[in-house]
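Weekend entry, working from home. Most of the wet-lab plans are on hold until the incubator is repaired, so I used the time to fold the two sequences that have been sitting in the queue since the last round of cloning. Logging both here for the record. First:
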Amino acid sequence: MPLIVNNSQVHLPRTTAEFIRLYSHFEESAKAFRSRPTQQVEPRGLLYVQQREFAATTPQDGSVSIIGSEDATTCHLVVLRHTGSGAVCLAHCDGSDAVTEVSMMVSTVKSLSVASQSGRLELHLVGGFIDDRRLSQKLTLQLLGAFDCQLEDVHLVTYCVTELNDVVKKGVHWPIIYGIAVDITKGEIFPAAFPDKSPDEDLRSARTFTGGPMINIYDAETQQLKIKPCFWFPFPDVDFWLAQKDEMILKGISTSPLVEPSHFVPHLRSTLRFLKEHPIPDNLLFPDGQPRIYKKNVNGLWEGSKIASMSS
């Protein structure tokens, strides 16, 4: 069945501007969403999702109470929630394979909602801006099209992307909201920032940086965060990029160099150093070929695998 807005099948547009003209009520709802203060989310009970990752759980989860993600410039943050079961999934999409990623999200939320006798799938889209390369516009249209191709009705509730998440500062377009979080029990979605993005931030970033596909990082049944063994080829230019000034790294690697958050370059340098130390994933990262598994402790913080140093 199709993507639904106001209980009617959407008309898929050729442009994002056309979509806003057709469904102009999203302008007011996006304005209200953008006006909400950004909340700092502490690590207790948090499940943080990086780029090309998604995670899903239910209100019955005794370990995770918040799912969140940030650092979205041209990327989109996608939340899919079943109103009956309360199962919720959050993905950080960059346009690598929207059709496959959307199908994975829908399948995951459905599997967590099989016992629910009522309810519907509700979709929330946040992120992007009016970027020079039109990457945000392209991703918005890809996601709308991918959800419209699903067998289940999906009701678009929040649309705060691209033109509706854009502000001009000194002649430069910027995204307004970079991150969001979902309160799993309440189903509430709000702008958010995350001082802690553990566990295994560098490893997970390295997987994405080297072209890894979208993955599900959380097992709601066991309440474990799992990073399965992955592979990447040695990054040949790692020493070159580590030697560059911040401005060159922004210009050469970022899809939106003028509007990246202040921690973008330090984070990327950390990822590059990780790739230099671990040119290929090996037994230090995945002993005996097993996944790296983390579980929340009594303080709501992740405990589990530790990365071994090359020098140990």
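Second, folded right after the first finished:
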Amino acid sequence: MERVPPPVVLPIGVAVASGLARVDRLPSRLRRSIGGALLVAGAGLAGWAALTMEASGTSPDPRKPPEALVSSGPYRFTRNPIYLGMLSAQAGAAFITARPSLVFGALVAGVFLDQFVIAREERELAERFGDAYAEVVARTPRWLVRR
């Protein structure tokens, strides 16, 4: 994915905010269907990822050091399926409740996770697993697409 030129960031932000302001204008049935799908998919993804971690001999608790490097299950598609699932579930809740502020909150949380939490976790994984982790990084995007 190409880098976004800084002058384009503001119009993108305005477009996203405008779209979010219209979430409550969607027909309620469509809004609840979209929200339910995002909520269920997000919770399912996070749960699948947690079970995959446990089956690999490591805890999904981010406060505990990883005991194993996991690259199976949902970790084949993204290095952060639990965070992606949580953010998707939050976006689903925003659609269900017609509260665009929850989508904005998910976007802010995603940026915070990306810049502070995941960056720290990746440094720790690189220190602990070295070349094996570098191989995972080379083949699996942080989210769903390469930057």
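Plan for Monday: verify the second prediction. The first helix runs from residue 6 to 21.
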